[in-house]
UniProtKB/TrEMBL annotation, chain A:
Pathway: tRNA modification; N(7)-methylguanine-tRNA biosynthesis. It comes from the Eukaryota. It comes from Extremus antarcticus. One of its GO terms (biological process) is tRNA (guanine-N7)-methylation. This is tRNA (Guanine-N(7)-)-methyltransferase non-catalytic subunit trm82. SUPFAM superfamilies: WD40 repeat-like.
From TrEMBL, chain B:
Coiled coil: none annotated. Keywords: Methyltransferase, Nucleus, RNA-binding, S-adenosyl-L-methionine, Transferase, tRNA processing, tRNA-binding. This is tRNA (guanine-N(7)-)-methyltransferase. Forms a complex with TRM82. S-adenosyl-L-methionine binds at residues 88, 111-112, 146-147, 166, 244-246. It catalyses: guanosine(46) in tRNA + S-adenosyl-L-methionine = N(7)-methylguanosine(46) in tRNA + S-adenosyl-L-homocysteine. It is found in: Nucleus. Residues 10-21 have a biased composition (Basic and acidic residues). Its main location: nucleus. It comes from Extremus antarcticus. PANTHER family: 3-DEOXY-D-MANNO-OCTULOSONIC-ACID TRANSFERASE/TRNA GUANINE-N 7 - -METHYLTRANSFERASE, TRNA (GUANINE-N(7)-)-METHYLTRANSFERASE. Belongs to the class I-like SAM-binding methyltransferase superfamily. TrmB family. It is an enzyme of class 2 (transferase). GO terms for cellular component: nucleus; tRNA (m7G46) methyltransferase complex.
Amino acid sequence: MDHPFQCIEVVHRIDTPYLLSACGPKLSSTSLSTGEVVSTWTAPGSEDTGLRTEIPGPGKLEDDAEERPAKKQKTATSSATSLSKIIKLTASPDNRHAVAVTDDKCVRVFEIHDDGKLDELSQRVMPKRPCAVQVLPDNSTILCGDKFGDVYSLPLLPKPESSTHQPKSDGSQPPEEKSKPFKPQATTQTVHSKRNLKSLEAQMKQKNLTTKTKQPLAFEHKLLLGHVSVLTDLTYATREVDGKQRGYIITADRDEHIRVSRGPPQSHIIEGYCLGHTQFVSKVCAIPGADLLVSGGGDEWLGVWDWPNFSLRWKFESFGEDTRKALVQGGVTQAEALPATAVSGIWLVPGDLDGRPEGVVVVACERVPVLAYCPIAELRNALPGRTPKWSFEPFDHPVLDVTATGTTILLSFDTRSKSHERLRACKLHITRGECDVLSVGSVGEDTMQAAIKTANSTSSDVTDEKDLDSLLCGIANLRKRVNQDEAADHDEPAENEE
Amino acid sequence: MAGPPKKRQKREEKQEGEMPQKKYYRQRAHANPFSDHGLISQRSPESPAAMDWPQHYPAFATQPGSEPDNQAKNPKTITQQVEIADIGCGFGGLLFALAPKLPTTLILGLEIRSSVTEFVQQKALALRSQNASSGLYNNVSCIRANTMKFLPNFFSKAQLSKIFLCFPDPHFKARKHKQRIVSTSLNSEYAFVMRPGGKVYTITDVEDLHLWMVEHFEAHPSFERVVGEEVEGDVCVETMRTETEEGKKVERNSGMKFVAVFRRLEDPSWP
C-alpha cells in the first residue's frame, strides 16, 4: 500500500513549475518541466526533536480543548519509529518560501531555491495543533489558526535574535513573573461551591510554593483573535474601499460560525458574522475581486456569501444530494451508504469557460470520489431567481488536495492501492455550465505527465490503514454527536451551591 | 429513589402565577463551556434574526396589522431590541432588581444551566402575573445559552448598551483559564455586540479573578476602564453589589466584593 499525497502545491521559480508534495513525513520537490525529483526532505521522528506526539484519535476533536492530562498523551517512546507527518502545506505568494506544518505542532519554513531545491529554515512549535496556515500578501507574515480556536501571526522569517525574544505582552498570556511566590487565589471568605473549596484546600496544601509558569513561546508571535471552539479554517481576504486595500481575516469554526475580523493590526475588531450554517463549517474560500465567499462543512448545502455584507447570497441546497447522484451516474452503486456530507476542500483553480480563462471553484467531500465545479462567472451572476449551475465529476477515489499550474490542475487522490495513480493532471473545460475534465496526456504536455509518473512511482509503503484515516479523514469527526453529556446535563444532582 | 424526577414533579405542581422554588431547580454550579451540552437538540438560533423574541417579551411583540408588510415577512418581531444582557445570570437576582428600575428597557439573562434557566423563566412569568396591573417585569426574560460560543447568534452588532458579568466561575487552575468568561479573544466578541459608549460591569469576590478581568479589559483596545464618580453613582453598580444572589451570599460571609466597569470605545478608522 502506498501513502497518498496528503498535500500538494505547485510553485514557480524562474518560470519553471515545481510540484511540492507531502507524502506522510516526506516533502518532495519535483520539477514539472523535467520530471525530476530535485529535493526531498523528511520530517524528523518525534524523538529527534524531543517533541511529544499527539496521536489523533476519534476523541481528538471532542471538546476537551484544554491540554489533556499526561496519561492521555502518548509519548514518542511508545511509537519510536513514527515520523511526524505533514498536515498542512502552503507557499508564500511570491513562491520563495513554503510553510509546512507537521503533526508535532511544528510550523516549518522552507526556502525554495531557484532550482526548486528546498532548505528548511526554521521550526517553531505552536502551543496547539495548527489547522490552517496562510502566508499574507506581504510575503513576510504567517497566519496560523489552531485547533484551540486561536489565530496567531508569526514572522515568516524569525529574526536571528528572536531565540531569546520575549513574547510581547499582548494580553493573551499575561506576563507572569518567573518565580512569583505562591498566593492562594481565594480566601475561605470567598463564596465557593464544594468543588472550588476543595481546590482551594489543595492549593493551600501544596508543598511547592512557587507558581508554575508555563514556558512562554520562545519566538515572536502575536495572538490576533480567538474562537471558543475548534477553529477549522481561515483565509485572508482583501478588498478595495475608497482606493485603499483593506485586509480581513475570515475564520470558520465547529460551532457553525464564519467570522470576519479586520486584518492586522486591528484584528481585535470583529466586523461581522456570516451566520446560517447549522452544522460545523470546515472550509471557506474567498473569491478575489468578487467579494464572495464559498463555505461548506457538515450541512448538506454549500453557501455563497456576500461576505462584506455578511449575507448569504445563495444557498446551494442540493449539494449533498447532487453529489450522490453523480456517484450513481458514475457507476458507484452503494452511493446511499455514503457518509453525511463533510466538505474537505474548497479550492479556486484556473479553468476555461467557453474558451476563455476563468476561475473555477472546486469542492471535495471527505471519502466521496466526486468533485463539484462552478465557474466564478456563474457564482457572480447568481441571484435569488437565477441559480448557478454546478457540475459534478466522479473519480475512482476521493480527492485529497488540488493545486494548479497554468491552466492545468493537479489532483491528489486518496487511493490505498498500489495499482492506482495517486496524482493526476487534468484541465477543466466548461461550456454552458457543462464541465469536461480532460486528462493532460491528451493535450500533449508530456513532461508534466513524466513528472506525475515519477511522483506516482515513488514508493512509500504504509501498512496502517487506521493511521492513514486519522491523517486524511478527520473532518467528519467535527460533527457533534448527541451523547450522554446531554442526558447528564439536564438534571445533574445539585451540589450544595449555597 | 429521591432525585431529579421528584424535583421535576414538584416543579410542575406549582400553580400558575405562583413563584417557583429554588430548591427544585438547583444544578451543579460548574458547566464546561467547551461542551456542547444539550445545546445540540436545544439549538441556538442560526442568527439574531431567527430569534423568537415575542415568546420572551410578549408585551413588546409587534402588534398584528400595525406594519403589515413587515409582519408578513417576519411575524416574530418586537418593537424594540434587548439592550441589557446579564451573562451567567444564575437565579436572576440582578435581572429582577433591574427590571422595575428600567421598565422600558429589555433585559435578558443568559444562563448555561437548563434547570436554573427554567427557574428564572418561571419566576419572570410569576412576577408578571402578580404585577399585571403595573405591567412590571414584562421587560425581563432568560434564555439558555453558552455565550462563550454563541453570543453573536443572539445579538447583532452594536445592539447592547450594558453587559453584566456577575460572580463568574473563577476557574482557579491556570489550566482552566481559557474557560474564564473574560479573555482577550472573548472581549472582542463583547465589543462586537456592544454599542460604543456601552458598559461592561464585572463583580467578583475573588481578587485574583478581578485583577484578571481588569487586566484583560484594559489591555483590549476596544475598552477603557471607568473610574470614580461615574462608577459609584451608577445605579447598576449599586444593584449589582446588593441584589445579585452571589452578592447576598458574600455579604452574609462578610467577604470582599470587587467591582469594575469598562466602557466600549469607538472603533478606530481603518489604517
